[in-house]
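Just scan my protein:

——
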Amino acid sequence: MVVMIKSILPFVAIALFLIALVARKRHNEPFSCFSAAAGWLFFAGYCYFAAADFIARSEYFDGGMAFVFLVFAVIVAVLILITRNDALLLLFSTDMNFKDELEKGIIPVELKEAFSARKLHIPKRVRVLRRNEWRLVTGIPRDYIAIAAPNGRRLDIYKDRRVMDILFMVTKVALISAVLYFPFAVLPAPGDAIISCTARLTTILVNLSGSSVYLVPPSYIYTTSSAFRAAYNPIEIVLACTAIQSMVLFAGLIFSVDAQLSRKIKAFMVSVPVIYGLNLIRNTFVCVAYYGQWFGSPATSFMVAHGEIARVGVLISLIIIAYMVFTILPEALDLVEDSVRLIYNFLLRRES
């Protein structure tokens, strides 16, 4: 029963995300917000079952990551439900009174320094919007909005981007990633196909590296050493060994932002195929280290190669790939930064 519920939850979330985005296109804000929030809560439910499964198998790192996604999903759902449709993204507040200077079209040096200290683009000029409200023009696509408190003792600086737009962009990332991932994770045929393909390619690379192994379908890699086979288990390629999670996250982020298609394709080519290729090298390294007993016993060699060296290598490679994607597609970095700032503001407000 639990397995069936877990397999249904992500597809319900996908349907709700799709309904929410369509409703938003048709300017049905209340229904789109309800659908999106419900989708995130269904996704959180899936993460709960996934985290419980990982922890039951003593896979604490993967269980922790599933829990992080669970918390993220709940926070996004809450933000969608409590955020006003016209709310802007708060960047920072200052207690300095710049009202008179801004009214004269002057950006004070102290205010410019406040932007510089936070590594934000420094505004170039001021336009009065209404009483106690100004547009700080940057010369880049996103300006800032400055709003003074009625008593003039505080100035709030906002990014000229609606919070709800950010939340629905994140929902679009989730939809694309989920559509690409869950058929492989839940349905037998797609999952078996990518696992089998990865296992075959890994076997070829291991043999090319000098080790002698063979594949037993669907995804068991055995050494040709009969003595080793009699004493130790083969290596099994599972879904996590295909790097599907990282690939769909990058694909979802790349194809969700508003940017030229040519730049999206370029960002895709330096991320998804590269991730899969590096993952094959990772699998090969783990197999060769295990069968060659590079770090002691086979069990120790597998633990060191798979749980330590390969994990650090994956982290470093993903950071480099993310840098290349953000260089080609700064809109993706913009979305990530805005999402982090939005959640930070929410958590800070809960604590205060």
Notes: The two ends are 42 Å apart (CA to CA). The chain has a mean pLDDT of 91.
